[in-house]
Design a protein that fits this description.
Layout: H1 13-29, H2 42-55, H3 69-82, H4 84-99, E1 108-117, E2 128-130, E3 135-144, E4 150-157, H5 162-176, E5 182-185, H6 191-200, E6 203-206, H7 223-232, H8 246-266, H9 279-291
Parallel strand pairs: 1-5, 5-6
Antiparallel strand pairs: 1-3, 2-3, 3-4
Amino acid sequence: MSDRKPYKSDLSNERWALIEPVITAWKAKHPSVSGHQGNYEMREIINAILYQSRTGCQWDYLPHDLPPPGAVKYYFYKWRDDGTDQTIHELLRCSVRERAGRLEDPSLVVLDTQSMHAAVNVPAATTGRDAAKKVPGRKRGLAVDVLGLVVAVVVLAANAHENEAGTALLDEVAVRAPSVAKALVDQGFKQKVVQHGRTLGVDVEIVERNPQDVGFVPQPIRWRVEQTLGTLILHRRLVRDYESRPASSASRVYWAETERVTRRLTGTTATSWRTPADPGDRACGELVRAAQ
């Protein structure tokens, strides 16, 4: 790593050690035709991706002491297209589960979606308006395990029905974690998702809300996906969808989760956006950071 002053989003030596083997193997499989090794350290490339994820800055606003935007873009898109971003995340997810005394692959997942406003550069063909939530943009769907770890991500236009998101997520889950036998969903998902689950050997249960509940009431197990969606928003690049392609939006989620899981494996926490003003806020901040 260079001698520059570190940013709070930078990988520590311990966190980089968790990712380095995958990147080293990738580099070995993709040698330069000319034999050139490249001008930039791979650790710095990932530091730039994580910096952008955390701060939400545009490509051209990356700090000058990080690799130039062109180089960072090259690797971000390359790793998006060949699945390296997902490979890194998947290995880390399995490590967390093993440390928790669980099997590498889960038997149960929780599905949910989140509608986001889209930036002006996002093509209209990949966006829509969520009529229920009154949000124009895209819809992010997640499948997480009981530890809140992401198993699958899909990104659709916001006007896509929950059924479309649910079936797409189940298809992804079937590929990434064929051990999954049960999925929990909320009442926004309908019987079409239940029926699709049957074709994949997954029992989809629609968890009904207690009609006597007022406001947001966490539901057993299902609250894990709500927590994960909440912690993703700590990454400002995910507060709004800035990506031209849905695949890039999904990749942003995997990198944000990689950042969170490496901290979880090394016992480190990330700073919040703000300094809590009173003891109650500080307690809330500690809960958020613990979830990271």
